[in-house]
Fold this protein.
Amino acid sequence: MPTYAIRVNGERHQVEAPAEMPLLWVLRDLIGLTGTKYGCGRSQCGACTVQLDGSPVRSCGLRISRVGDRSITTIEGVSVGGLNAVQRAWVAAEVPQCGYCQPGQVMAATALLTENPNPTDADIDEAMSGNICRCGTYQRIRQAIHTAAEEG
Amino acid sequence: MTNVQKLDRREFVKLGAAAGGGLLLGVSFPGSARADALGILTPDGAEVFHPNAFIRLDTDGSLTIWCGKADMGQGVRTSLPMIVADEMDADWSRVTSVQADAHPSKYGRQMTVGSSSVRGGGWMGLRQAGAAAREMLVAAGAAALAVPRSELRTESGSVIHERSGRSLGYGELASAAAELPVPESPRLKSPDQFTLIGTPVPQVDSTPKVTGEATFGIDVRVPGMLFATVAKPMILGGSLERMDEAAARAVPGVRHVVRISSGVAVVADNTWAAFEGANALECQWTGDFTMSSLDITRHNERLLESAGAIAREEGNAGAALAAAAETVEATYEVPYLAHATMEPMNCTAHVQADRCELWAPTQNPQGAQSTAARLTGLPIESVTAHVTYLGCGWGRRSRPDFVEDAVETAMAVGGPVQVVWSREEDMRNDQYRPASMIRFRGAVAGGRLGAFSARVAGPPLGVTDGGGRGGGGVDRNAVDGVVSMTYTIPNLLVDYSRSNVQVPTGYWRSVGPSGNTFMVESFIDELALAAGVDPLEFRLQMLGDHPRMKHVLEVVADMADWGGSVPAGRGRGIGIVEDKGGIVAQIAEVSVDEGEVRVHRVWCAADCGQIIHPGIVDAQLTGSIVTGLTMALYGEITIENGRVVQSNFHDYQMLRMRGMPRVAVHVVDSREDPGGVGEPAVPAIAPAVTNAVFALTGERIRKLPIRLSQEAASGR
């Protein structure tokens, strides 16, 4: 079985995995970072969203062999020393209901704000529509993104 | 709502001093905890007194409150401790909320369904528990300060003697309080004395839910644990005829392939290897069920042809309809729905010779525990069932089938195992919201509804287990939302024709009204049109006996300025329901955009009685609207030759951010006993939308999900 050296949240990990194993399961089951969630396995729901060099990707659809030396950020590493602006806004607005999809939502929103510090509602629709929330927290997500944008 | 007689039978059980000499107080109600081994459950716990508190006050003043109910986003880990802490006059900043493990009796009925965690007995039990603790602390304070109790008051975790300017913290009094008898009937606060109830205290678990630290069932990690999944019959109710497991075993990382009751478990070093192994299995499934969705519709249509069991009757609808100069008739239909919880079914189990430990995202902790006891043969006290966070519940997690999978698999491999269903298995092995139909007849005269009949045809819940609740051939869930209609109609008949189509059915958020209210409230709009009366006015005139409903309807009409101008190209519709103790009215504003219905705005007014946490209530109502919109716009499970067609979110779609309307929620101030908040905003949004579609296009939607005709889709 091949071995891959990947960089997750600034740390290097050696993992032994089949080339086609999705990053999602490498993170969850081999490295033990369970904040990234399994929802569909087909890049349909966004629960597994992580960032690859800062861009949001669905880790369930990304084979370990395709990661290369790009830097992976998961929910566990998205903020250093406390919550980031998106997470603070999420808590202030009490976005989470069940909370299962929220790591993916936070990863997608953080990536959005990095790329576009002042997103319009249309920008938010575009960036966040890949992330399903079955509890229906969308309205608060929208509000929290605007709040996080204002706080910069 | 609260049953006072049952409260008289209440029994506080003092469980002795806590570690460190603190006060440990439980509240229990003997006989209230039923072990729902099969998971067939009471959808509304209104009649059952099920307190669920367990309180520990330590000598340092820290207060721990165990939450016996499961958290699936409805915020019980915050709201239930709030109730206890308020009556106790505790310092909220010193409260720690802890998720309770399953216990046959300690926490009362732990089944978390039917929007019942607060309403009914739960609320009163928690208040009684807090009030009893407070009175014990006051008594201890009176002794310590040598003053009469009547001179003492309590506030934020202290007993205060105003006159002498002295006060004692609860922690200081905990040990002495623990020695005192538990008061029989502690005095409860009046609503104007509440300090926490009704306020937006920060929820206890928002932070772990945004950092990834919250542990859901799928996140449990036990040393030495293997990962598994289950291949289940493709045919509903089917079984395995034959399998070739060689290819599965050849998948790197696969350790075991074992037969279990529900199918074949593939056990591996990681979840992905287990999924790959299950995909590689060659299974031949067999089963008798060969119906398709069209057959099921035809079957229900046939059931509509003959009279069913009478579920509700007032006046003589048959005669009144026969005598009417003109009647309105329509047949409505709703499909099967999957729950599609964000976190697929899963459970982790470790079975040893003398004990079993479970970690389960379950709405039914006691059912999980008793299921494991039954399968392992262990006594119930040897089964520890931890309740994790639940990635949505929706009623799906009240069934312990996924617990059975984990326990059987763990027994087969002899070590800790986590069983995770793939999304595909989850969607194809659900207990679906039933597909059903209603044939309505109504007669209006002089602008009023004089006669109304509704014949409901569909399966009961739990149909594959011979299900059906309620007597006289009427399944009470199948007709809920029709029978519970609150309009005053002189001649009214509801009857029910049971279907036994063997598609598994179960509780789905808001249960009966999820479909029935769409059908009822759409037909009411048809009748309003026939009567020549505005849909709002038509409803108001039939709600004279229900002032709370009438008020909510008036509030929502004000919010939306019903009757005022509507933007060009948009239509508005209205719907209302009373469900699980909550009253919710909604107005939707829609357009047709590129052939599809787009919902732009929703106004929602609700009367849920006394609310505990306004932020949670707002979230539940808004989230329920998303549930209802998803159902109205997309929700449909179809059956083809006995197999579920849909498998994942690409063909079972969810409302997404771009489809989210602007939602305005107003909760009516109320001192009535708490009602449900987790479900009542689900049922009426679909008819608000379809009534809006009618207002805009003239097309009456009588079947969900909404599919516009070509004319309506192209705009008029």
